[in-house]
Amino acid sequence: MTSAVTAERQSTRESRTRRTKELFRRAHTARDSEERGRLLDEIIVLNMAMADAVVSRYSGRGTATEDLRQVAYAALTGAARRFDPSQGTEFVVFAVPTMRGEVRKYFRDHAWMVRPTRRIQELQPQINAAEDELWRELGRSPRPSEVANRIGAPLEAVVEALSTDGCFAPASLDRPIHTDGSGGPLGELLGAPDADQDRAEARIVLQPLLRRLSQRDRRILEMRFVRDLTQREIAAEIGVTQMQVSRLLSRIYRDLRAGIGGFDEKRGGRETARLWS
Asked: Is residue 175 part of a domain?
């Protein structure tokens, strides 16, 4: 951005601030309610660019910009009608946090595409309120450390909550890896489930439990999962009824579940068979 453009924008902001201050002075002293309403409407229209600037920070996150503008304009209208110029505060210091708070609330209620943890969701309104307060006090955006001190939360938690902006519109997995468009899609960086790791974990969990089983229970599992015998075939081999085999297997599964907090017969059976192989 050139210095000439920067100077022009600064001049525009200063002109808007002066005009806003003058309109508020006249509205505050106006005796006629219609005249006061007309002046406040002029203030609102004059400062719509300020609302647009607030909205621009939240555009492109999966929510229609026009919807965000309506939220910001409504907040601007409310701020203009509540603002008291006799307090000596600039209108921008009062209005910007109000608009930001309403836009953030809209996101919190309507725009999550990926839900963060409950702890982060609970921190969001506290952080938003603290940022608005500090913005008014400091006249600038507060640092994360200042927000953390204000709400009494760990800095790491505040930083994590502030980083959840991506939860509104996560990056597409089809997006190129590099910003210049080079490289493959982002999805290629994602790892795939490692079946060998799952099997190794299952074996580590099952081995000590299988050792604690009785010889008979181990034999029944071996016939069921290694030799792949039916319950009727197992019953004939050990000299009991099929119903008894069904009850024995149910009891063995129950013991295994108690040992590991859960036992999936299909997956656990496969790993049991591998342990004997």
From this structure: no
